[in-house]
Amino acid sequence: MYNTYKEADIFIDGAAKGNPGPAGAGVYITVSKDKKQPYQKPPTILKKSFNLGNQTNNMAEYMALFQAVRLAKKLDIKNIHIYSDSQLVVNQINGKFVVRDIKLQKIKAIIDEYLKTFKSFDMTYIPRDQNREADILANIGVKQSNETFMDVEDLTKSKLELETQLIKNPDDVKIKNNLNLNNRQLNEILNDYEFDI
Predict the structure, then answer these.
(1) Rounded to 5 degrees, what angle do the CA atoms 55, 196, 146 make?
(2) Peptide bond preceding 20: is omega within 30 degrees of 0, i.e. cis?
(3) Mean pLDDT, range 54-58, rounded to an integer
(4) Residues 67-115: pLDDT tens digits?
(5) Alpha-carbon gap, residue 11 to 30, rounded angstroms
(6) CA 73, CA 67: separation in Å to the nearest integer?
(7) CA nearest 99: which of 62, 71, 128?
(8) DSSP notation for 128-195
(9) From residue 167, how far is each of 23, 51, 186 by CA, in Å?
(10) Which is nearest to 140 in space by CA: 46, 52, 45?
(11) Which positions ≥6 away from 164 have C-beta within 8 Å?
(12) Under a CB-based contact definition with an 8 Å cutoff, are residues 137 and 28 in contact?
């Protein structure tokens, strides 16, 4: 069972060796920095690498963000501060730039649904040298082989649980919304992006 965290800082990075090429994502989650002790390194909650198969740089960055919000939700974090060294993704998520690529529009739509479920969130651009941990994790992800991009067992189990809950509570809007999000993940991510599962 995971601990419940009220607030966390999440550092993300996507890496693709070629465009497209072998790609990976890194997610580094810490307890939010104490503003009274700015030089003290906050405790790590989670660090994870993901192999993404062959992707573009932009898709790898979006997949890192997708994994970050998915993990934050799984960890039951209420307020999230996301940091990325991709100006494009930060500006697109913050609504300053338009997303023109169809595949990126689809993954962004799913991320936006996740972001609505947090009590609060913000996303900030940081220079690459301030994103070292996530960068290292993303590069480890590139080199991993046979790594499951998404925990399909978790998604399938969650889907079955939600369907069972919905049978018992057919009018529960929250269960319906969670089930829709779960189905959307399975259908759009797994089918459209052809990840090696």
Answers:
(1) 105
(2) yes
(3) 93
(4) 999 999 989 999 999 999 999 999 999 999 999 999 999 999 999 999 9
(5) 8
(6) 10
(7) 62
(8) GGG-HHHHHHHHHHHH--S--SS-HHHHHHHHHHHHHHHHH-TT-HHHHHHHHHHHHIIIIIIIHH--
(9) 40, 36, 21
(10) 52
(11) none
(12) yes
Q: Percent of the chain having pLDDT more than 90?
A: 57
Domain 7-147 in this protein, CATH class? alpha beta
Residue count of the chain:
197
Pairwise CA distance, residues 64 & 58, whole Å: 10
Three-point CA angle 132, 108, 45, nearest 5°: 40
Question: Domain residues of the chain, as ranges?
Answer: 7-147, 148-197
Q: Model's pTM, two decimal places?
A: 0.73
**Residue 93: closest CA among 75, 115, 71:** 115
